[in-house]
Design goal:
about 80 residues, mainly alpha, 434 Repressor (Amino-terminal Domain)
Length: about 80
């Protein structure tokens, strides 16, 4: 689901609430929505949590290599378990 679609669903939180959650200006969120921009990678995981997984990192920024990030994080967790 795209972020724009999420905000149109019944019971969804508001773009303003998202801006407060991310500690950014509301104009940034409204700019993403208005111009259909990819969301900065640094915000994607937080937005996925904010939407309770209804909007995924991959949907927020499809141009980013999420598989590489998830693999790196998975390998990091394995190393920590085995340390």
């Amino acid at each position: 689901m795209k972020l724009q679609e999420y905000f149109l669903t019944e019971g969804a939180k508001t773009p303003y609430a998202l801006s407060k959650y991310l500690k950014i200006l509301p104009s940034n969120v409204y700019g993403w929505l208005r111009h259909n921009r990819n969301i900065p990678v640094a915000h994607c995981a937080k937005i996925e949590r904010f939407t309770d997984g209804k909007v995924t990192c991959e949907e927020l920024n499809p141009g980013y290599d999420w598989d590489a990030l998830w693999n790196a994080l998975s390998n990091r967790e394995e190393r920590r378990k085995n340390a």
